[in-house]
Protein: Diacylglycerol kinase family enzyme
Organism: Murinocardiopsis flavida
Amino acid sequence: MRALFITNPQATTTTPRARDVIVRAVASDIPVELAQTEYPGHAEELARRAAVEGYELVVSLGGDGTVNEVVNGLLTAPAELPRPSYAALPGGSANVFIRALGLPADPVEATGAVLEALRSGHQRHVSLGRIESEKDDRYFTFCAGFGWDADVVHEVERQRRRGRRASPALYMGIALKLFFEGNRIRDTSLRVEPAGGSLVNDLSFVVVTNTTPWTYAGAVPVQPTPRSRFELGLDAFALTRISTVRTAELLRQMMSKQGVGPAGRGYVSWHDQEGFEVTARRPRAFQIDGEYLGPRTRVVFHSVPKALRMVC
């Protein structure tokens, strides 16, 4: 088996020494070629090259941004080529996709689990989401968001450029700050139309998910769509009104084991859908897999069944 091992040196929770240990552990089981990312989008290029050059496996060590790039590289390789299997190891601050697969959050323990799966030949097909807009045609692994969460991601990225380290505390602090400032979170310019369903207007925040959780608050999973699964279609959650008391109650529910129920006051949700169209009366912040893409006014979402073979 030929494998390409893509590492992100900017990953927030792995040191160079830890990366060396992990690479050596994988290389002791299978022959690997090591490639290190050097700029945004490089992991996508490397993964696409792996498919073109006939690699059977791509391994990555990085955060959710690295995973998103690798997935898009694999899925945009020429369709007639065999697509490599993919093994993702956690190296970021959240690692939502990797943890949703059931792998440990610790990169060394996750490496051990992946090596066991390689030895046993265990693989899992997962569905993905795909977005299309005037500016985009990309895949996402666990979530895409309009409004509040995208504003948070945008501000976190701005803080990171200033030298701040991404952490759950930074995300939580910015989310609370933007909520209490109030202007953007109370903008009810969003609309959602599920495939074959009815249009819902006057929404302030929309998140479309491919699995649960939507994100993590440290070790705690945050679940606005607790029934979302990799084996099903897309789910979505939207706020229909904003009040401090009701939003605090919804956040408490999201962070419980059960997550938010399918129906309730102040929100609407959808389960196992083929797709959605989300539009905005004015440009709103938009993100996928924790990466800010910029303001958008219309995005179409599609579920892509069994898009990827994961080693896990």
Notes: The longest strand covers residues 291-311. The mean pLDDT is 92.
